[in-house]
Amino acid sequence: MSAITLSSEEKSVLDWVDGEGDSMIAAVRRWSGINSGSRNTDGLKAMQAELKDAFSRLDARVETVELAPSETVTPDGEIKPVEYTPALKVSARPDASVRIVLTGHSDTVFAVDHPFQTCRDLDSDTLNGPGVADMKGGLLVMLHGLLALERSPWGKQLGYDVLISPDEEIGSLGSGPVLAQLGARADVGMTYEPALADGSLAGARKGSGNFSLRVKGRAAHAGREHHLGRNAIVAGAAFAKAIDALNGQREAVTINVSRIDGGGAPNVVPDVAVVRFNVRVGDEEDAQWARQGIERAVADINTRDGIIADLHGGFTRPPKPMTPANLRMFEWTREAGRTIGLDLKWNPTGGVCEGNNLWASGCPNVDTLGVRGADIHSDREIAKISSFTEKAKLSAVMLMKFARGEFDAREARTLARAL
C-alpha cells in the first residue's frame, strides 16, 4: 500500500481539531461527573441529554431508539425481563453511496453507590476519573472526528450512522439487534473503545457468552429431615466444578465461574441455586466445543435424584478474527496514523466489544479508536489528555479519506462478503 499524504484542505481541518483540545477536556471532566452506570437509569438519561446537546452540532438527525427488553435469571431462580434506557442514534445522508457506522456507549461499570465518582488530574497529561477513557473520552473523539469531516470539502460525500448504547458494559443485549441492523447496511465500522496507553489497538477479538444455570432441588429441615432434601447448591457446585475442568483442554477457550446464588438459613436444605459463568472462544469451532461440554455437564446434573437444571443465556458476541477485510481496515488506520506522526500497532485480545457485534453482521471495523487509556473498569482508570486531539485527528483523516475514496470502504465490505 503506497503512503498517503494530506492536502492543504485536510491540514486546515486538523488545525481546527487541535484548537478543540481544551473544550474536549472540559467536556470529559463534566461527563465523568455524571454517574452513568449500566443500571442507573437516571444517570443514563442525564448523560444522554448531554450527548444529544453535543451531537446536535452535527448536520445530522439526532433521535432516541427504543431497545427491546431481554431476560435475566434472578438470584432466587425467577426469570424476569430487563428493560433498557433508549439508545441515541445520529444519522446523516442515508442515501450516500458510502456509509459508515460509528458506535460507542454511554454506560460505565461504576454503580451509583460506587466510591469512584469524580475526576482529577494525576499529572499534566493524565486524567483519572470514571469513564474518562471507557468511553466518554471516546465519544468526544468520535464527535470531533465527525465535526472535522463536516468542515472538510468532502463531508457531503459520506453517509453515517452513530449508535451510542446504554448497555455495552452488560453485554449489549438490548442494543445488539440495532447494531446488527446498522452494521448490515454499512460498508465499514468505527468503534471508540480506548486504545492502550502506548497507543496500541486491539486486533482479533475472542467471542464471549454469558450463561446462567438454574438448579432446582427440594427444601427440607437440615436436622429433622435432611434426607428428604435435595441440595441445589451442592448440585450447582458440582456443575461449576465440571465446567471449570474444561479449562486447559482447548487452547483458546476459557470458562470463568463468577457466582453461585442460592440458599439461606443454615437449617434449611437449599432448593434453588443459580450458577453464573462466562465463556471466551477464539472461533466458532471453539464455541461449538464449549457448548457441547456445557450441555454434557447440564445433562449430568439432571441425572441426580430430585434435581432439575436448565441453562439460560448464550454467546452474545461472536469472535472477531483478523480476516482480510478487518486487516484492510487496520492498514488504513495505520496509514492515516502515519500522516499525523503515529506508528500504530495492534495485538489480539480476549476482550469483547461492539466491534464483535458489527463483524457478526459482516461489517469490517476497527474498534479501539478512542483515547489512550489504562486501568479501565477500576478506580485507577486514566485517559491521556494529549490523546484527545490526537485520536480525533486520526478519525478525521480516516473519515476524509473514506469520503474522498482514497480508502475504498466498499472494497473492505466486498472482502467481508467473500468469506
From TrEMBL:
Keywords: Hydrolase, Metal-binding. The keyword Membrane does not apply. The keyword ATP-binding does not apply. Residues 204-301 form the Peptidase M20 dimerisation domain. This is Acetylornithine deacetylase. It comes from Glycocaulis albus.
